[in-house]
Amino acid sequence: MGGSIKNFVRENLGIIIGLIVLCIVISLVNPNFLSSNNLLNVLRQTSTNLYLALAMTMIIIIGGIDLSVGSIMAVVGVVTTSLIALFSFPVAAAVAVGVLVGMLIGALNGYIAATTIIPPFIITLATMNIARGAAYVISDGKPIRVMSDSFNSIGSGYIGGVLPMPVFYLIILLIICYFIMNKTKLGRYMYAVGGNAEAAKFSGINIKKVKFFAYTFGGFMSAVAGIVLASRMFSGQPTSGTGAELDAIAAVVLGGTSMTGGYGRIGGTVIGALIIGVLSNGLNLMGVSSFWQYIVKGIVILVAVYADVIKKRKS
């Protein structure tokens, strides 16, 4: 256990120091940053991004990309809330249908990526527009309010009155993702496919199944994020998840995952997502416009990718 912690710190020392420095700077500018309520709020907001980023880590490791995650969030939120508010579905049944919708879109991405030569960027760009359009069509462009306490508690409730439900889900999903990537053959196959697909194929790895799983899992995690976000907002909104893919990719790249595939760690993605979450929260506390926040996040991604390229050249 001690060795694992030491390895984690050694592999992510740079971004851990960056996170600590960022927290210190923001707390000096606004002492409210370190309040327990605000720190819990950062964790709650970061959890939604991490649902997406954990799956995005797998997808990028196999050499892919998924631009549809934010749109899947929107359509799943709209479908789930529509079933509850307009068709009186039980909350559990509506949530199950919403998760299924997300997984089906992810499976479509995975099937096309595995069976055609169409680049994943183009595939998921197309499904991004399809899913977003479906969200607008289903909702008629309007938020769908849900007054069910049992649904709203999914994203707004607490465990023991202290731990936010979204953070509780994150802990469970984080354990699952860590187990998949570090303790299973599937995890090793993902690294092999991203490192050298041809070599992986000749060694007997079913590349199609690996790609199909990664994208389907991405659809599942996007569905979870969409349902949790809809619950927190007490409504399904066709605009939700806009730009979510940017935050997820930023977290993955900051966490050290190579955009060319074959290398990455779940732990690094967690630190990367915390940096994005702390940065967004700090900019909000300082009253920085959300418009400028997009610029800052874009610069962060550019710098992180450039650092990855330089590191690869040196190695």
TrEMBL record:
Membrane topology per the entry is: Multi-pass membrane protein
Q: Does the keyword Nucleotidyltransferase apply?
A: no
Per the record, GO CC terms?
Answer: plasma membrane
Places the protein is found = Cell membrane
> Which keywords does this chain's UniProt record carry?
Cell membrane, Membrane, Transmembrane, Transmembrane helix
User: Keyword Ribosomal protein: yes or no?
Assistant: no
Query: Which GO molecular-function terms appear in the entry?
Result: transmembrane transporter activity
InterPro entries to which the protein is assigned, alphabetical: ABC_transp_permease
Q: What is this protein called?
A: Ribose ABC transporter permease
